[in-house]
Amino acid sequence: MVQDLVSIITSFSVRIYGARGGRKIKQTLDQLQKEGVRE
């Protein structure tokens, strides 16, 4: 479910900020997801 949410946010981010900005956001979301899993 978290992966689905990350995918949706990434998809919209790419549309809003362009492919380059979307990549940065995806990296940030992936990092946050990994940190959240550890807790």
Oligomer: single chain
Report the mean per-residue pLDDT as an integer. Answer: 75
Overall geometric form: flat
Rg, please? Answer: 10 Å
State the total count of DSSP E strands.
Answer: 0
Provide a count of the helices.
1
| Beta-strand fraction estimate | under 5%
Helix content: over 70%
- Poorly predicted runs: none
Number of domain modules: 1
Largest sheet: none
Structure summarized in a few sentences:
The protein is an all-alpha fold. The protein has one helix and no strands. This is Conserved domain protein.
Walk me through what this model shows.
This is Conserved domain protein. It comes from Heliobacterium modesticaldum (strain ATCC 51547 / Ice1). By secondary structure, the protein is mainly α. The chain has one domain (1-39). The chain contains one helix and no strands. The chain has one helix at residues 2-38. The protein is flat, with a radius of gyration of 10 Å. It starts with a helix and ends with a helix. The model has no long low-confidence stretch (mean pLDDT 75).
